[in-house]
Every structure is written in C-alpha cells, then in structure tokens.
Design brief:
20% helix; 5-stranded mixed beta sheet; 126 residues; globular; alpha+beta
Length: 126
C-alpha cells in the first residue's frame, strides 16, 4: 500500500487514461479534468482503457511520486461505468482494493461523516 498516516482523499479519473503520460501529462489531467491541485497531497488514480494498468500520482511534500502497476491476470475495476461523472472519490482502503484487482460493487459507510467547523460551532451552542 502507498503508505500514509494522515487522512487523504483519493480522486480517480472516471475515464480511461493514456498511461504513456508521465508526471506532467497526468498533472494536466488532475488540473483540467479533476479540477484539483496536484500539490494537495491527495492521491490521483488513473487506469488505462484495457484496465490492465494503473498509475497513482501524489505529492509527498518534497516532489511528485508516480506509482505504476500492471496486472498479469484480470482487470482493474471499471471506474467509468457512470458516463456522467468525470471523477470518483475513493478512500485509501478502496484504492487498495482497486490496486489488488478487486471489483467495486457497492459502498457502505463505516465511519461517520467528517465534522466541519460549522457543525462544531453549532454544537457548542447547545
């Protein structure tokens, strides 16, 4: 697993990507299609049309890292079933499952939603 001890978001491109692209090309997809900052520290997942190769781009604080995986058997989950979406947000656990070649069949929230400043301010008035 791509190790991190902090909570990070995983943004997956919901369309096949040309994985001949390197740092600059994938960073461009992050900016133009995902509308995210590549230097945020979040993880960005890209899968090729055949779903046999995947790349994960991340900023580790000192530079961009690019992780690549090629499946010898099977295929990665199809991230572009819903043509209306340009991106998916995954958890790091879901990313791990995708990179292991598991299918994404459904989601069940196991943790409560993230608490924002608004909710904290509202809770202090009670």
């Amino acid at each position: 697993m791509i190790g991190t001890s902090r909570r990070v978001k995983v943004h997956a491109l919901a369309a096949p990507a040309d994985l001949r692209k390197g740092f600059e090309g994938l960073s461009g997809l992050v900016r133009e299609i995902l509308k995210r900052d590549v230097l945020s520290g979040d993880l960005f997942l890209f899968v090729n049309r055949d779903r046999t190769r995947a790349k994960v781009l991340l900023w580790d604080g000192t530079g961009l890292c690019l992780y690549a995986k090629r499946l010898e058997r099977g295929r990665f989950a199809c991230l572009w079933r819903d043509r209306a979406r340009s991106a998916l947000t995954l958890t790091t656990s879901e990313l791990q499952l995708v990179l292991e070649g598991s299918a994404l069949v459904g989601r069940v929230a196991l943790s409560p939603e993230e608490i924002g400043e608004k909710e904290l301010a509202a809770g202090s008035r009670r």
